[in-house]
Amino acid sequence: xxxxxxxxxVFVIFSGCDIDDTPREDAKSFDYKLRGEWESEAGSRYxxxxxxxxxxxxxxxxxxxxxxxxxxxxxxxFKNITKNEMLTGYSEEGKIYIEDFGTIKDGITYDYxxxxxxxxxxxxxFAGRDQRMVKVEEDLYY
Length: 142
Fold this sequence. Notes:
This protein is mainly beta and 142 residues long. The protein contains one helix and nine strands. An eight-stranded antiparallel β-barrel has the order 1-2-3-4-5-7-8-9. A hairpin with a 3-residue loop joins β2 and β3 (56-61). It is globular and about 40 Å long. The chain starts with a helix and ends with a strand. Mean pLDDT is 85; it is low at 5-15 and 17-24.
């Protein structure tokens, strides 16, 4: 009987707590259409992917070793942003902003489009070179 009382008391305590993990309306986040997993277009000089959730982004690939000898490394996507780590960020007015361990990087302009086939595309421009990415997985959380 005592165990039942303890279980009941714990239940009452936790059910009385207001645990709300819903993001605040004023919190900055990535636009819903950006959320999901994106990969470089097939045949792209630089390969990698970005994984975008509500307010996080992870950049995988796009390493320094992908820049061909004698080419402009400034054209490498997401240069000078930490790779393979979950970073925070948000989007607004056609730009994404990434906070890289305490520093919010300059906004990166993007264009979002949907092809007649239904494929979703993102296009970024890095030092005058376009990098197209295709959505390979929808956002699973929202």
